[in-house]
Amino acid sequence: MATTVALLGVKSFVLGIIAENKKPASGTPWISGGGVVTCNYPSDPTVFLGFLSIVSLAASVVVGFYAVFYPYKGKYVPHIVFFRNKTFFVFFNITVQVG
């Protein structure tokens, strides 16, 4: 589970960096009038790469939640036990709020 979360997170990060580096610097002015200029941008893969990055991040979050609450050897741990631990509670809340 940890490996899957890590790989999906790294994939999301790498795709996000590639998308940022591949975006076009500027567009070609296409229509101007009324104080507004509309630019025509060449087709590029940044939107698709950004979408893949978000999907990978969402999959990482889903697998991460599943890993936290997955039954160990068929036995469920009551959720209240997790949240009694102050360190787990703090880091879990930070993760939920950031993710």
Question: Could you explain how this protein is built, in words?
Answer:
By secondary structure, this protein is mainly alpha-helical. The chain has one domain. It has a two-stranded antiparallel ribbon. Strand 1 and strand 2 form a beta hairpin. Helix 1 packs antiparallel against helix 2. The mean pLDDT is 80. Keywords: Membrane, Transmembrane, Transmembrane helix.
How is the secondary structure organized here?
Elements: H1 2-22, E1 28-33, E2 36-40, H2 46-69, H3 79-84, H4 86-98
Features:
99 residues; mainly alpha; two-stranded antiparallel ribbon; elongated; transmembrane; membrane; transmembrane helix
Describe the structure in brief.
This protein is mainly alpha-helical. The chain has helices spanning 2-22, 46-69, 79-84, 86-98, and strands at residues 28-33, 36-40.
- What's the alpha carbon Rg, rounded to whole Å? 21 Å
Task: List the domain count as a whole number.
Answer: 1
Continuous helix count = 4
Q: How would you write the strand order of the largest sheet?
A: 1-2
What percent of residues adopt helix (DSSP H or I)?
Answer: 55-70%
Structural class: mainly alpha
Order of helices and strands: HEEHHH
**Could you report the average pLDDT, rounded to the nearest whole number?**
80
Please state roughly what percent of the residues sit in beta strands, choosing from under 5%, 5-15%, 15-25%, 25-35%, 35-45% or over 45%. 5-15%
Unreliable spans: none
The biggest sheet amounts to: 2 strands, antiparallel
> Which term fits the overall shape?
elongated
Alpha carbon gap, first and last residue: 18 Å
Number of strands: 2
